[in-house]
Amino acid sequence: MKVLKRFLLTLFCIFSMSLFSANARAADIIIPFIYGGPNWGAMQVDMIPGIDDTYDIGSANFRWQDLFVVSATVTKNAIGVTPVDTNGVMISNLTAAAAGAQQWSPPLTFQAQGWRTNATAESQKVEFMQDVRSVQGAAAPTGYWGIYPSIADGAYSATPALKVQSDGTTTVAGDHLATSYTSTSTSSPSMSGIDSDQDDPDVTWKIYGNATATGTGAEVADLYFQALGAQGTAGSLETFIHFDGSEQTTNMYGTVLFPDGFTRHLDIEAGSAIVGNTAPTATTVGFARGLGFDADAELAFFNWEVPQDWDGVSDFTIEVIWFSTSGDAVQNGETVKLDLNYYSVAEGEPIDNGTPVEATTTYTASGNQTDKEMFDTTITIDFDHGDQPLTKDDTVTMQFNRDTGVDTYTGAVIVLRWEVKYTATGMPYH
Questions:
Q1: pTM, full prediction
Q2: Which residues are CB-contacts of 398 (< 8 A; sequence separation ≥ 6)?
Q3: The Cα angle at residue 209 between residues 204 and 212, in degrees rounded to 5
Q4: Residues whose CB falls within 8 Å of the CB of residue 251, separated by 6 or more in sequence, listed in order
Q5: What are phi and psi of 364, to 5 degrees?
Q6: Is the pLDDT assigned to residue 285 strictly greater than 90?
Q7: Nearest Cα to 300, choosing from 175, 423, 401, 155?
Q8: Going from the N-terminus, what domains does the chain have, and what CATH number goes with each?
Q9: Residues 6+ apart with CB under 8 A from 116
């Protein structure tokens, strides 16, 4: 009787499996059996369903637990260019959400093993989990796809390392940078974030670009680097560099700010100055060639533009670089008085607009100086003087002379150059 039962069970199992694989090859349905059912452990064949696109592996209530493979390939043919979810692999949570009870997707986790060198040295897990998290909404829910790291079985980070929201906003998080990239159909795409570095606090930056209508005079392929913030003594800042592609050319302009400021100077060589009717004497000593001033009437003229990167709230200085006459060193107590008269003129104004301002300084020797010694004497230009206030892009025209009627040095003052120094908070505009 026991033998008969075993025989009948075997026949039933063979009959059932043949129905499962009625259209498969004979070799594909040969499955070893033992008493009680198929011997899956001894299976050495392919599993091919008898009907295409019909059967599942497992169900909602009867699920396989783990899958171990050497390598795996998921093949879906004849997709073409149709982006529909039925053409791929879907990992889904079919449980309906409720008010205050969202249903997130099942996670997909990638796990690697990494070696720890500190004691106790060991292999530890390195994991990145990704999932889709729904967010309750009034008109409709929203959500985001995120990637969360974990080391050595530690808790996954609460903040995703990469976050893509349902509106297209993308956020990348890190120790020194948190950025977001935004693109919509009605505005230019942009990337912005907060630099959390301790040496550069409270500054946000933005990168964004656009492409407008092409044609003569149209701007295309624009790229902006924009900084916003409050730092140092300069207060609130909003500056940018703009790469403008138009008419097959690319220009870069804008201002990059350094809120705490730094000193920059413009050099005006003596040889570039225009001399007056009574000209100072061109003098060469060694390889140094300058203009020698030894009388009141000797004049030199030069001009410069107020730079765009000037901080707008500090005075300028003109440093006069000069040396004494060969064989006539400046002696203790002798003086040299240097004068500058100037206009600061905006575009559209008369070149001699307003009342000129005189700025002056006197050098007094402390002890006997050496022969042909070089000096650096500073004249201060009051940026907000009532007669000639300085404004960015103004042209400053200057007349330089030595006041020999007042000073006491007997030799010529030989000027090599004038250095216009100022406090800058950014890169030169032009």
A1: 0.47
A2: 301, 302, 303, 304, 318, 340, 341, 342
A3: 145
A4: 243, 244
A5: -120, 125
A6: yes
A7: 401
A8: 1-58 (no CATH), 107-173 (no CATH), 262-426 (2.60.120.260)
A9: 122, 123, 124, 152
